[in-house]
C-alpha cells in the first residue's frame, strides 16, 4: 500500500489551508469579543443591563415595525442567542469541531451560576438554552465559512498548474512538441526501401 508524503498526510489531518485574512479576523474576534461580552455578562448591575436591552428593543422593533409582535423578553432571548454566535464561529473557523457547542453550554451555565452568586442578577434557564443555541449557530456558521474558504483555496491551487502549462511556448494541447510544418509540393523523404519492401539497389 502506497504511503502518503508527510505534507499530504498533514494536509488531510488539518484540512485545507485557510486564507491568512480569515485566520487573522477569527483571531481578532477571539481576542476582542470576550472583552465586550464579558462586561455585559459579568457586570453586577442587572438593572443597567435590563435598561440597555429595553432601549435596543425599542429602537430595533420600532425601526422594523415589530414592536407589538416582539416583546422585550423575546428580544432578550434573541439577544442571548446572537451573543454567542461570533465567538464560537471564530473558534470553529480555527479549530473545526462540534464540541464547541458543549463548551458554549458549559460557559453559559458557569455565567448563570456566577450571576446567581452575586445576588444582583437572576439565573434563568432560558438564557442557558439561548446561549447554547447561539453557540450551535456560531459553530455551524464557522464550519460553513471554513469549508467555503477551503474549497476556493483548493480551486486556486488546481487552476495554477493548468494556466502555467497553457502559457508554455512550443507545447501542444496534449503536452507534446508540434510536428514540423510541411510545404506543399515538396518531395517526400526517401525511406531507403523499394516498392517491394526491400532495400533499393544503387549500383
UniProtKB/TrEMBL annotation:
One protein family per Pfam: VanZ
Region annotation Disordered: where it falls in the sequence: 154-203
Compositionally biased tracts (Gly residues): 193-203
Transmembrane among keywords: yes
Lineage: superkingdom: Bacteria
Chain ranges of the VanZ-like domain: 25-145
Keyword Membrane in record: yes
Transmembrane segments: 21-42, 48-66, 78-101, 128-149
Keywords: Membrane, Transmembrane, Transmembrane helix
Ranges annotated as biased composition (Low complexity): 169-187
Name of the protein in question: VanZ-like domain-containing protein
Taxonomic classification: Bacteria, Bacillati, Actinomycetota, Actinomycetes, Micrococcales
